[in-house]
Automatic annotation (TrEMBL):
The lineage of its organism: Bacteria, Pseudomonadati, Pseudomonadota, Betaproteobacteria, Neisseriales. NCBIfam families: AA-adenyl-dom. GO terms for cellular component: cytosol. GO terms for biological process: amino acid activation for nonribosomal peptide biosynthetic process; secondary metabolite biosynthetic process. It comes from Andreprevotia lacus DSM 23236. Its cofactor is pantetheine 4'-phosphate. This is Amino acid adenylation domain-containing protein. Keywords: Phosphopantetheine, Phosphoprotein. Residues 1-22 are annotated as: Disordered. Pfam families: AMP-binding (PF00501), AMP-binding_C (PF13193), PP-binding (PF00550), Thioesterase (PF00975). Residues 541-616 form the Carrier domain.
Length: 906
């Protein structure tokens, strides 16, 4: 008996052959959908970054003005506009403006190496380049023969343009026009641009809305680079349905603890994550089980291993959250399938990707493009409304991967290269790749692109790259090559040519690459890398107990036999996920909570051991309050004073934008560590801090800076240093309002009156903190908290409300120290009577504060007359220390530092 194979193994008739009914209004574009939401609720928050927000109306008006300016530069339907900017309001304004002008955005990540950025710019040939300071720095030195628009500095060019949207007559862009071109890794060594149209993005949301029910009450988190297509789902999912988009800074994304805390604080309801990133976030939740508001967690970007979700499902605070696995690719507009996960999935040893999005057609075909039966592995082909237009300027590759469908007349299929098998119920199981493309930590990588880049390096005759999992759970790239290049030199070349996620972790030098009997490369015969394969310095044995113990930990985490004293964590193959694992091991074995940022600042074993020892000493003794924020070789250090709540986070944010080599340190207040009593006067604080900075830098000139509550303390330190005969070449007051020179009758630093005042302050500040941490707390619960008899009981009740469980003594003690420090600094500022300044004062003030303060120059002219220099900066009191304004603040601070040193040398 014979059968027609195509009929016998054809996909179900009702699933893949019938064209789905349109689920969205055909003449809609992305920006028009946004404009409709802005018209409905102009005051609603569209974007949030730190403490700053931008409403739908404000975002719409700013984008409209810029769009009209872009029209004057020739931007219109299907015109490409490059967009290179850091995560900020300006990034979203630029993106919207490009679409409103009719163009398509080509996202460029400023973190990419210049060679890759230049390749994408040359291939896409955009008509205009939009950028910010980060983008300008990333593209520095590249000759660009196209108009450039700075999203911040050039705002005056379009400030007078009309704020209402462009009409259809002014810009006749339609759903068939391009919305964006995102570049993915290319197997030939050339990144390829995927062209996606408005209609393909909008139908994605229309066809999945019946599952999710997104709406204006949702808060989305933008965790991914705009050059990664997951960001399309995050950005337009929020703005399409009137939700709020929380912009998560890159440093926060890299720190799972900080990221989880921010998601809880901001009330995020829709979170999109790669499975690897979510596993780390789940681990962070185990250490800080705060309540969250997550409705949906949507996985994508790489294969899901369901058993890794067991810890998440085991926690009761996660029962209201639904986990979804969505398989997809850039060429089919972000997502293709949908699968609601359950605890039962964690017991299966497969990666389920579920059912198709309704307006797509899925085919599982063999090597001859014939359908395979259920439960048989085959390659996935995708047809329907989500298939992209094709590859930019690559007609041959487009013809190879985008095919006319033999099943539905007029349909196009995308050949994914992914292997799947169909279950009896029609759902799919993901089985891997059928070529040399891999996904690592959410990034789709063509190994051929890395091989091509390495082959261009000096001393390399031939190169091959594999993704290996020699350590369970750690998939990493390994390069094999013939030639006389050294691993460290080859890694340096790769770092210059490729994004960080594509740089191999190990480099194996071979006399010849292994071949099969047929003369083809035998990839299975390539050896596992040993210690010599990692770029590293000459081995020097660790010294001392701390270095020896950490060297053993590094070796275990990195899968190496030994680690030397001057080896670099990242050159040994480390990355952010392994860094998180390392911090967890250190905490488990020593009890020291090392911040993730430490390994990025102190990358060698020796430097990292010094930092861990310092943190351990501080935790045990509480005697070291001078925190090295950034090491450097310059003799004149820059000292930041903690702000009013006692933290130094703002100093770390500023330091990231200062040049390498400039040593930066920050002062923590007494009371930070257990067993310490805070100081209650500014002069006492200044006296202690002066002693510490003089121990770190024995002679002047000294350079001091303080923001907010740290300003008066820095001011008093400068006066005490001057009185001791030392030179202060910089006293920078960052948006500091002068304390009242004649405050109300003050209490002495000690005594019953002061103790009562401090106790009252502590309760007031604790209540303020609680209301900020638990927004929406009913009035009766607030009253009940205020009536509690003592601070410890108040804090215990707050922590119980926050976590849903009884608070531990150490948690209460930590919060009590925080409140005590905050109250001590607040009291000290209130009773401080500053004397006239004997050193020049650099006031770096925001326009917002200058408008709100009734005194000129925030009051400093009264004490620093003739010695006051005022620089006005954009932003407000809080946004000045956050992106994007913090970069300009750092630049002005650097200029003031240089001017102070020049005066000193004269």
């Amino acid at each position: 008996m014979t059968h027609d194979v195509d009929v016998l193994f054809a996909p179900p008739q009702d699933q893949d052959r019938k064209p789905p009914a349109p689920a969205w209004p055909q003449p809609l574009c992305l920006h028009r959908a946004f404009e409709a939401r802005a018209a409905q609720a102009p005051q609603a928050v569209a974007l949030r970054l730190g403490a700053a927000t931008l409403s739908y109306g404000e975002l719409n008006a700013r984008a409209n003005r810029l769009a009209r300016h872009l029209r004057t530069l020739g931007v219109g339907p299907d015109v490409l506009v490059a967009l290179c900017a850091a995560r900020s309001f300006e990034l979203l304004v630029g993106m919207l403006a490009i679409l409103k002008a009719g163009g398509a955005y080509v996202p460029l990540d400023p973190a990419y190496p210049s060679e890759r950025l230049q390749t994408i710019l040359a291939d896409s040939a955009p008509a205009v380049l939009l950028h910010d300071d980060d983008g300008q720095a990333a593209l520095a030195g590249q000759a660009l023969a196209l108009p450039g628009v700075h999203l911040q500095h050039d705002a005056g060019l379009w400030a007078m343009q009309a704020a209402h949207p462009l009409s259809v007559e002014e810009c006749s862009v339609g759903p068939q026009h391009l919305a964006y071109v995102i570049y993915t890794s290319g197997s030939t060594g050339q990144p390829k641009g995927v062209m996606v149209e408005h209609r393909q993005v909008l139908r994605l949301f229309a066809s999945t809305q019946h599952w999710f029910g997104f709406g204006p009450r949702d808060v989305w988190a933008l965790c991914h680079s705009c050059a990664f297509d997951f960001s399309v789902w995050e950005i337009w999912g929020a703005l399409r349905y009137g939700g709020e988009l929380l912009i998560v800074p890159l440093d926060v994304v890299r720190s799972p603890r900080d990221c989880y805390a921010l998601l809880c604080q901001a009330g995020v309801t829709v979170l999109n994550q790669t499975p690897s990133a979510f596993a780390l976030l789940s681990d962070a939740q185990a250490d800080q089980p705060q309540p969250h508001r997550l409705r949906w967690v949507i996985f994508g970007g790489e294969a899901l291993t369901p058993h890794r979700l067991k810890p998440w499902y085991a926690r009761s605070l996660n029962t209201a959250t639904t986990l979804i696995n969505m398989y997809g690719i850039t060429e089919t507009t972000v997502h293709v399938t949908w699968r609601r996960l359950s605890p039962a999935d964690t017991e299966a040893n497969v990666s389920p990707i579920g059912e198709r999005i309704p307006d797509l057609r899925l085919y599982v075909l063999d090597q001859h493009r014939r359908p395979v039966p259920d439960h048989v592995e085959g390659e996935l082909y995708v047809g329907g409304a989500g298939v992209a237009r094709g590859y930019l300027h690559r007609p041959e590759l487009t013809a190879e991967r985008f095919l006319d469908s033999p099943f539905v007349a007029g349909d196009r299929l995308y050949k994914t290269g992914d292997l799947v098998r169909r279950q009896a119920d029609g759902s799919l199981i993901y089985c891997g790749r059928n070529d040399f493309q891999v996904k690592i930590r959410g990034f789709r990588i063509e190994l051929g692109e890395i091989e091509t880049a390495l082959a261009r390096a000096a001393g390399v005759a031939e190169a091959v790259v594999l993704a290996r999992e020699d350590v369970p759970g750690d998939l990493r790239l390994v390069a094999y090559y013939r030639g006389d290049a050294q691993p460290d030199a080859l890694r340096a070349h790769a770092t210059q040519a490729l994004p960080a996620y594509m740089v191999p972790a190990a480099y194996v030098q071979l006399a010849a690459l292994p071949l099969t009997p047929n003369g083809k490369l035998d990839r299975k015969a390539l050896p596992a890398p040993d210690d010599a394969a990692c770029a590293r310095s000459a081995y020097v044995a660790p010294l001392g107990e701390a270095e020896t113990q950490l060297a053993q930990l590094w070796a275990e985490v990195l899968g190496l036999q030994q680690v030397g004293r001057f080896d670099d964590f990242f050159l040994l193959g480390g990355h952010s996920l392994l860094a998180v694992t390392l911090m967890a091991r250190i905490k488990a074995e020593s009890g020291v909570d090392v911040p993730l940022l430490a390994i990025f600042q102190h990358t060698t074993l020796h430097a990292f051991a010094v930092e861990v020892a310092r943190l351990w000493h501080g935790a045990q003794q509480g005697s070291d309050h001078l925190v090295p924020v950034r090491p450097g070789s310059h003799a004149v250090q820059l000292f930041f004073v903690h702000e009013g709540s006692g933290t130094v986070a703002y100093a770390m944010d500023i330091a990231r934008h200062l040049p390498p080599g400039l040593p930066v340190q920050a002062l923590l207040p007494l009371g930070t560590f257990a067993g310490e009593t805070p100081l209650y006067s500014v002069p006492d604080m200044a006296c202690r801090y002066v002693a510490q900075i003089r121990a770190a830098q024995p002679a002047g000139p000294y350079q001091l800076a303080g923001w907010c509550g740290g300003g008066p303390i820095a001011y008093e330190m400068a006066q005490q240093l001057h009185a001791a005969g030392q030179t202060v070449s910089l006293l920078a007051m960052i948006d500091v309002i002068l304390p009242d020179p004649e405050p109300a009758a003050s209490a002495p630093p000690t005594g019953p009156e002061t103790a009562a005042r401090i106790a009252t302050l502590e309760r007031e500040l604790a209540l303020d903190f609680i209301l900020a941490e638990l927004p929406g707390l009913p009035a009766d619960e607030v009253s009940a908290l205020a009536a509690l008899p003592d601070l410890d009981t108040l804090l215990a009740q707050f922590l119980a409300l926050k976590s849903g469980t009884a608070a531990l003594g150490e948690e209460i003690d930590r919060y009590r120290r925080m409140v005590a420090v905050y109250a001590a600094i607040s009291h000290a500022r209130q009773v401080y009577r500053p004397s006239p300044s004997r050193v020049p004062v650099q006031l770096l003030a925001t326009r917002s504060s200058l408008r709100e303060c009734p005194q000129p120059d925030l009051g400093w002219h009264a004490l620093a007359e003739g010695q006051l220099t005022t620089t006005i900066l954009p932003g407000d009191h809080f946004s000045i220390i956050q992106p994007p304004h913090v970069r300009q603040l750092a630049l002005v601070l650097l200029q003031a530092r240089a001017a102070g040193l020049a005066r000193y040398r004269q």
